[in-house]
């Protein structure tokens, strides 16, 4: 989790949302599949909190991607101009 007043990197939230929507999943279905609270998933996807590594793994599994694929998508998001 970032230090107080430190912004959360927005690449992961953007990638999670894009993957979720591409699969036609709701936030609720994604949270359930990842075994995390809907409130927690919503905050992650809105960039209000940074997930722990175990939670990132659960989200990758729930979205049907490997950690490597998720990392590649995050790198691509970070290299995309605003």
Descriptive notes:
The chain is mainly alpha-helical and 82 residues long. It has one domain: 434 Repressor (Amino-terminal Domain), CATH 1.10.260. It has helices at 11-22, 27-34, 38-45, 53-63, 67-79. α1 (11-22) crosses α5 (67-79) and α2 crosses α4 (53-63). 21% of the residues are buried. The mean pLDDT is 91.
Give a quick summary of the entry.
This protein has one domain: 434 Repressor (Amino-terminal Domain) (Orthogonal Bundle), CATH 1.10.260.40. The protein is 63% helix and 0% strand. It has helices at residues 11-22, 27-34, 38-45, 53-63, 67-79.
Average pLDDT level? 91
Structure class: mainly alpha
Q: What is the H/E order? A: HHHHH
* CATH C-level category: Mainly Alpha
How many strands?
0
Radius of gyration: 12 Å
Full CATH superfamily name: lambda repressor-like DNA-binding domains
Overall CATH architecture: Orthogonal Bundle
Low-confidence stretches: none
CATH topology-level fold name: 434 Repressor (Amino-terminal Domain)
SSE layout:
Blueprint: H1 11-22, H2 27-34, H3 38-45, H4 53-63, H5 67-79
Helix pairs in contact: 1-5, 2-3, 2-4
List keywords for this structure.
82 residues, 0% strand, mainly alpha, 434 Repressor (Amino-terminal Domain)
């Amino acid at each position: 989790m970032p230090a107080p007043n430190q912004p959360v990197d927005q690449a992961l939230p953007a990638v999670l949302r894009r993957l979720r929507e591409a699969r036609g999943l709701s936030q609720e279905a994604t949270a359930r599949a990842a075994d995390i609270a809907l409130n927690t998933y919503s905050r992650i996807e809105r960039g209000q909190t940074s997930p722990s590594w175990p939670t990132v793994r659960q989200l990758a599994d729930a979205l049907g991607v490997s950690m490597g694929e998720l990392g590649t998508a995050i790198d691509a998001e970070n290299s995309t101009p605003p």
